[in-house]
Write a structure and sequence with these properties.
Helix content is about 65%, strand content about 0%. The protein is mostly helical and about 475 residues long. The chain has a single domain, classed as Growth Hormone, Chain: A (Up-down Bundle). Keywords: Membrane, Transmembrane, Transmembrane helix. It is found in: Cell membrane.
Amino acid sequence: MPDEPKTLDPTARPAAIPAPAPAPETTAGSTGGPASAGDAPAAEQAGRARPAPAARRWTLGLVTVGLVLAALNLRPAITSLGALLEEVSANLHMSGTVAGVLTSVPPLCFAVFGITAPRLARRFGPAAVVCAGMAAIFAGLALRPLATGTAAFLAASALALMGIAVSNVLMPVIVKRYFPDRVGSMTGLYSMALALGTSVAAAATVPMTDALGGDWRLGLGVWAALAALAVLPWLPVLRDRDRGPAGGGNGGGARTGESGTVPRGATPAAGPAPRVTRSRTAWALGCFFGLQATGAYITMGWMPQIFRDAGVPASTAGVLLAVTMVMGVPLAFVIPRLATRMRTQGPIVVALATCGLAGYTGLLLAPAAGAWLWALLLGVSNCSFPLALTMIGLRSRTGAGVVRLSAFAQSVGYLISIPGPLLVGVLYQHSGGWGLPIALMGGLMVPQMLVGILAGRDRTVEDEC
């Protein structure tokens, strides 16, 4: 099935390009015949066909590196803590309920600070905000090991999570801005990097802590170095914050496919940003994002402890979490590309939810005996995250709409996900086991499947506003 059309940012200014040599006017899907009256102007299409100037290609290269490094830093602050949660809780004298609050801090920060991302991006540019976000992650991760009490530890974690929050929202925006003709592949690339950073932090934190003398503070603090590295590629991009993507392909705001050409009959998608709060699709996407985030943060925060309580060694429990996370590396690249080639994404939603139900059932009945299989199944299920990011790009026709929809869906979603990890901690502490918490996790897969099907329908928020 052909690609779903995508959106160019109507607000960005095209780069200056020398006048092209005369060329035949063609459209996507045509065989070289003349362009019809409904097609994009010939000059605009010719500009899209020409390679970008060398300086702009260099900028695109920096943005690509920056996206990958930023994505690598969007989860280690969380999964590294999950691997050492028992040691941190004991050292800082946390109860099970307080530890549950700690695992709820990430979605809380993502909801509170993520909603500010569009305004910050309009004021400073998305690249500058992501650069500042990486600096905040570095500062938070560097300060967290210095905390001597729960309050200071939470404050340092919140600083890092604030940087993650704004970067989370702006990743789809930067992809749409700089790579309007490669939304699926670039979303897959940074989703794959995000999954890689998540899994490496989960697997390597305990061994690194042991190698550093067993001090959990050093094991958590070492991830600040990766965040510092992620700041660097964005610095040269800041001077281009008021320019559009390379090649001048942003000028009309027309919808494009993965090929980068304008579909026959397409028109520029300029206009005011949609009021996404009036869109049923936006609400369905926000609920889907929230339910998948609930499962993801429960998994990252509690799954190692579930395995440890079942008799699995601490180092193996960390590796099992890494297996769950590493499943997202190849699938995070494949799923967005597959989703952009489907008119509706409901079948993918159902397949991922089914894997989640099977994984939680196994975790409830035989957590240690089938640990590796359950980790694999839950890893597949957690790939609802790159699917949700892809649907954000597919459910809006305009660049301004993508910014609004990304902020809305992620903020609503993370608000929905806040009670999940906390409720798991409370149930675990008061029930004395993992039966009720795991039943809750599995039960949430059903509404996630339903709202995901609604969010995956072939429509855009502009059609409903």
